[in-house]
Each structure stands twice: as structure tokens, then as C-alpha cells.
Amino acid sequence: MPIKLPENLPAFDVLSREGVMVMSDDRATRQDIRPIRIGLLNLMPKKIQTENQFARLIASTPLQIELSLIRMSEHQTKNTAAEHMEEFYRPFAEVEASGEKFDGLIITGAPIEHLPFEDVTYWEELTRVFDWTQTHVQSTFGVCWGGMAMIWYFHHVPKHILDHKAFGCVRHRNCAPASPYLRGFSDDLVMPVSRWTELKRDEIQAAPGLSILLDSSDTGPALVEDPAHRALYIFNHFEYDSGTLKEEYDRDVAAGKPINVPANYYPDNDPSKAPLNRWRSHAHLLYGNWINEIYQSTPFNLEDIGKA
């Protein structure tokens, strides 16, 4: 089954050219099926790139997926055309007021990790989002800063500033092979990392109810399950395209910022060579497993979400 997207959303053409099954609104309405409703709260500056990345991953299941794009109500993006935001995004305040519910919600990262959470301009509204997920979303996936913000809000697990950027393709170990979210995963795997902060293993383990699913001896815990809040927190970037780390590296080099070559990314660690994607299969596995777990647990009637 395909993912349902507006035909004029850039991701529709991008994914179609890649061979991903996409479906227009008109075609979807002719199918007698309830799609899985996934919201994407997009906090990243490059909205379209992020839309493409997550739409690609959640489209790789046998289920029909309906993707809804959500933004913070008052925060205005400077990197995406206002016309795109107006046409495809709804402010969270509007979604909240509508009373509608979602099978899943992805909360992306944001390039503000140096700030204390409470100093973020939209922190108050974001905490409303977190509370709202407990009654209106079956499963929430917090990514990078989004995951750090959620684990701080619900469990007071702090982030810590690093003295250098964790940057590159880092090897992780599978700590929970029996987890349904890691079905089909290898015992170890590579994942892109790009952050100036970390969460400490012992502080996560001290928080009741949290389970570390993927961990790295180099960059610490990467994937955490929070059953009480029906949430997953991932602090790294399975969603990255093959060239995303290269774009970040080239940007910082051009700006004269101190930046290390992303580790284990370029062949022979040579930035003049094309990088290799060694995480794509596990990325699709993780998000496919997440969608499958939603499908297994979500009520058929959306209005019943959050009533248990």
C-alpha cells in the first residue's frame, strides 16, 4: 500500500521518481480502508528535505499511510517559502482545537540544542504538544532534539553539552533483540550521528520505565522506549539521506567553522569521494516496525485513542 500525499507536495514527485508507492487524495478516497494517520511536527529549518526523508521511511509498509504536516503555531520559519507552509502545514493550535486524533506522531529535531529547553521560544506550546499526545496519539516518535525534549519533559533526563561534535556514522549495538521495534535488526549496525549534546546511560537507566534499545560505546544511547508514554526517543538520524552529513560538513567548512570530517562516512575518510549509505536498510526496518506496532495496537475508531 502507498503513502497518501497531496499531488503538489514536493515529496510526491521525489518519492514517485524513487519508485516509492504514493497515492493522491482522489485515489485514496476510492479505497474502502482506514489509513494509518501519521502527523509530522516538523521543527527543522529545511522543511521540504525533512518531509521527503520521513515520508520515504513511513511509506515502506503494506499499509496505507496518511501524512499530516504540522508546525508550531507562532514560530515562523525563515528557510522554507511561506507559500509552502501556508498550503501544506497546519499550526498545532488548529490541530489541537479540532480534537482530531492520530495513530502516530513524529516530532523532529531542531538546531537549537545549545539552548536550555525552557529558553526555546516555543517551549510552552511544545509541552502542550507532549501532553496532547497522551490523549490524542497512539504512539509518538521523538527524533534527536525532539526526543531529548520529550525525555526531559516526561522524565527529567538532562542533555549534556559535548566539547566536540559527535559527527559521522557510528557503530551501535542491539541491546534488545526481542523488541518488536528491532525485528530484523543485526546485532550491531551503523547510524548517522550529528549533535553537540548527549544523554548519559546511567541517567536514562535511573529513570523508571525507560529501556535502552540501541546503544553506542562512542556516542551513548541512541534509541529509548518509554512504554508509559507510548513513545520512542531516538537521538541520531536514521532518516538522513546519503548526502546529508556531507551537506552539513561542506556548510561548516565554507563558513570557516571548526568541524571534523564525519567519521566512517567517506571511503578512506576522504571528503573528495562519494559517501556510502550503510544505514538505509535499518532505517526502513525501524520505521516499518514502528508503523506495524501502531497497526497492531491502535483502535479501529480513532476517537477511542487515549481512552484506555
Task: Report what the structure shows.
The protein has 308 residues and is α/β, with parallel strands linked by helices. The chain has a single domain, classed as Rossmann fold, CATH 3.40.50.880. The chain has helices at residues 10-17, 25-28, 47-58, 82-88, 92-98, 123-136, 145-155, 201-205, 244-254, 280-297, and strands at residues 3-4, 22-23, 36-41, 65-71, 89-91, 102-107, 137-143, 160-174, 188-198, 211-215, 223-226, 231-234. Strands 1, 2, 3, 4, 5, 6, 7, 8, 9, 10, 11 and 12 form a twelve-stranded mixed β-sheet that branches. α1 (10-17) packs across α3 (47-58). The longest helix has 18 residues, at 280-297. The chain is globular and about 50 Å long.
Name of the CATH first level: Alpha Beta
Q: Tell me the CATH superfamily.
A: Class I glutamine amidotransferase (GATase) domain
CATH fold naming: Rossmann fold
What best-fitting shape do the alpha-carbon axes yield?
globular
CATH architecture: 3-Layer(aba) Sandwich
Classification by helices and strands = alpha/beta
- Helix-strand topology string: EHEHEHEHEHEHEHEEHEEEHH
Return residue spans where pLDDT drops below 50 for at least 5 consecutive residues. none
Q: What's the main sheet like?
A: 12 strands, mixed
Q: Helix amount, in percent?
A: 25-40%
Radius of gyration: 19 Å
Count of individual domains: 1
What's the helix count? 10
User: Termini distance?
Assistant: 29 Å
Instruction: Report the β-strand fraction as a percent range.
Output: 15-25%
According to DSSP, the number of beta strands is 12
